[in-house]
Amino acid sequence: MIAFYVLAAVLIVSAVWVVRASKPVYSVVALLLHFAALAIVYFTLSAEFIAIIQIIVYGGAILMLFVFVIALLSSGVAPFQSGPNRLPRIAVPALTSVAIMLLFIAYAIGRVPAVTAPSTQLPLGAAVGTANAFGSVSDFGRALFTTNLLPFEITAFILMVAVIGVVLLAGDAAPYVPTRRRARAVEREMREAVLRAGEE
Amino acid sequence: MPYQALAVPVLNYIGLSAVIFLIGVAGVVLRRNPLIMLMSIELMWNAANLLFLTFARTSLNNAGHIFAFLVITVAAAEAAIGLAIVVVVFRSRENVDVDEIALLRG
């Protein structure tokens, strides 16, 4: 019980850190902490396989991607700018939408009282930690490859589309990448055309 | 004793998920750095995943785990494409402030 509150504190603090960080690299570090704590929370929910996947895919693959892109972009000319602070302008709509969202959550929880009760009565199954327990690899794999085979295949297709899209977007022979110089040339031409039209 | 009850009421997990989601929304709305915005989107994915796993645990139903797994893969695809867009924009404009990327505003 104490563990949950410690983990929740770590999760919230690291999430705030992700948002408040002055540089994206600090955000990545905070996000790593966040994912690790979240994996432990998943373990407390007896979702062993998802916890491991969380570490591997999020902590390993996605964060590596972020780190690579940061390393790629930071070597360029312009450092990252934080931009203007837009908190004052959006404070009222933000608070309003937060209030609406909390109302919705409260309404949903009120509608389903069974959900909020501590789950003391659970159907019997294999003990936690054994091979066929709820959330274990064999349990998960059986559900994934029998009942949910079609979603699994569709996900594979989505990943393939994503890979092709990334290669098309950022690959070496990107189809159309307007450079700043070309944009400036077009702008100059248009301005001269407008001036000519004005003279005539 | 096959399954122990959760150590804390389920409401705590729901509240934690809502808080993380709201922090992610705040990150997307307040920050103008596309990388930090993408990371905030990851926070929101994770908040949703936490809810999936919580309700999977309370109802002892595997479907939540499957859905969380699919969400993780889609999040990976989203991160890859988002970062590719960031790289392309940076390559062409040498600046990645999202306020200046207003080509589609019309």
Descriptive account of the structure:
The complex is a heterodimer of chains A (about 200) and B (about 110). Chain A is mostly helical. Chain A folds into 2 domains: about 1-75 and about 135-145, Up-down Bundle (Four Helix Bundle (Hemerythrin (Met), subunit A)); about 150-200, no CATH class. Chain A contains 8 helices and no strands. Chain A has helices spanning about 1-20, 25-45, 50-75, 85-110, 115, 135-145, 150-170, 180-200. Chain A is extended and about 85 Å long. The model of chain A is unreliable at about 115-125 (pLDDT under 50). Chain B has about 110 residues and is mainly alpha-helical. Chain B has one domain: Helix Hairpins (Orthogonal Bundle). Chain B has 3 helices and no strands. Chain B has helices at about 10-30, 35-60, 65-95. In chain B, helix 2 (about 35-60) packs antiparallel against helix 3. The termini of chain B are far apart. The model of chain B has no long low-confidence stretch (mean pLDDT about 85). Classes of the chains: A mainly alpha (about 200), B mainly alpha (about 110).
Low-pLDDT windows of residues of chain B: none
> Approximately how much helix is present in the residues of chain B?
over 70%
| CATH level-3 fold name of the largest domain in chain A | Four Helix Bundle (Hemerythrin (Met), subunit A)
Number of helices of chain A: 8
The helix count of chain B comes to 3
Calculate the mean pLDDT score of chain A and round it: 80
What's the overall geometry of chain B? elongated
Distance between the termini of chain A: 81 Å
Largest interface: A-B, 96 and 77 residues
**Which class of chain B in CATH terms?**
Mainly Alpha
What is the total number of structural domains of chain A?
A: 2
* N-to-C order of helices and strands of chain A: HHHHHHHH
- What is the C-level CATH assignment of the largest domain in chain A? Mainly Alpha
